[in-house]
Each structure stands twice: as structure tokens, then as C-alpha cells.
Amino acid sequence: MTTVRLPLFPLNSVLFPGLVLPLNIFEERYRAMMRELLKTPEDEPRRFAVVAIRDGFEVAQTAPGLPDPTATLERGPTAGFGTDPLKSFHKVGCVADAATVRERADGTFEVLATGTTRMRLLSVEASGPFLTAELEPLPEEPGDEAGALAEGVLRSFRQYQKRLAGARERSLATGADLPDEPGVVSYLVAAAMMLDTPTKQRLLQAPDTASRLRDELKLLRSETAIIRTLPSLPAQELTRGPTSLN
């Protein structure tokens, strides 16, 4: 299997292929990463890898008591991730393509990236100013009955979206607004559902599209039933993740 080494950006959230990821970069290790990415010619992809944090802090401690009053002050690329950062991260993540990298006057960065392909984390290197990782791509197999499952997931997702939006008072996406390619459906729904990080991570690393869609169908039915008993919650933009505090 061919491997690649890319800069590594750990987050407290899961990035899926096709999801837009806005980043507000202020930590020095990630500022160094963005300065390195800017050396890539504009006509080539500026790629880095995003992994969800299993055990650690997305933002390194900057002063005693922040963000964790019991933590000791750490510096460098592994700050917040322990002596063996590989153990702090989930092993399946997503390659991101930074379409926009804008440096502000104070040296911080505004970045807009998009998830592209899944990858598996093999090793982490911390000898430079930021983490890098050796990665292997994870192909996306369709699995059995992916097309029929995608249709069922879309029907259930519309009901879920309706409940989540509070609904009869708001216009909802029509069938023409949603994709029908099973792989795209599986990632869009995984990103849009209001789920915790371990559940989203489970969906990201599903062995094939059909397995992910089956899992989503169960989750959608369960979550929709729960939402029926709760007050209305705000809907979430489907292709965009929250801005990371980095």
C-alpha cells in the first residue's frame, strides 16, 4: 500500500469527505503548518490530515489554569497529546484540502478547507515545529445494496431534519437539493446529524458505504424518536463544520 506523509491537524471533531472546515489558526505550531502549506504552488492542493482526538486537548495550555486547571504548561507540537501522540488520536481520519489560507496582520490565519478522502494513521512524527503523519489511503467500497439503503436514509433524514428544524414553519430541502450517490449521502448525513464524536468516528471508519448507511438508518430512526419528545432544536448547515478554535 502506498503511503504519504502530511501535516497533521488534530481536532475535537470528525471531518468527513465533502465537509467544509473553517479554521481560525492562532497556535504557533499550526501557524508554522500554514506557513509551510503556503509554500505549495497555488495550482497544487495544499493538503493536511485531520484526525479526531481520542485523549487530549485541541488547544494547548497557554497559562496556568487554562484550559485545564490541573494540567501542566506544555510547549511544542505534541502539547496536550502526551508523550506518545499516536495513542491520543483516532486512527482513521480525513485528508483536507486548504482552498483558502489567509494570513492576518497579527500572524494568525483564516483557513477554509474541505475534506477529500479517508486515510489511516500509521505513525506520528514530532521532530519539527508541527506534527506530521504517515498515512495510507482508505478506499471506499460500496458494499451490498448501497443504492437502496441510500434511498431509505434520505427518507429518514428528511424526517429527522424536519423534526430538528422545528419544522412545519420552515421550508425544507426538496429531493432535488439532496444528492443521490450513496457514498455522498452517507458522508453528508454523518456530518449533518447531531451526534457525539465517538459515534461520528464510528461512521467515518465504517468498512463500506452500505455499512455506514445501515448504521445511519438506525441512528436516524432512534434520534428522530427522541427529538419528538424534546423542544425544537436549531438545524445545522449540512456541508459545513463548526469553526475550530485550534
TrEMBL record:
SMART domains: LON. SUPFAM superfamilies: PUA domain-like (SSF88697). InterPro entries: Lon_prtase_N, Lon_prtase_N_sf, PUA-like_sf. Signal peptide: none annotated. Transmembrane segments: none annotated. PROSITE patterns: LON_N. Residues 6-224 form the Lon N-terminal domain. This is Lon N-terminal domain-containing protein. It comes from Streptomyces lividans 1326.
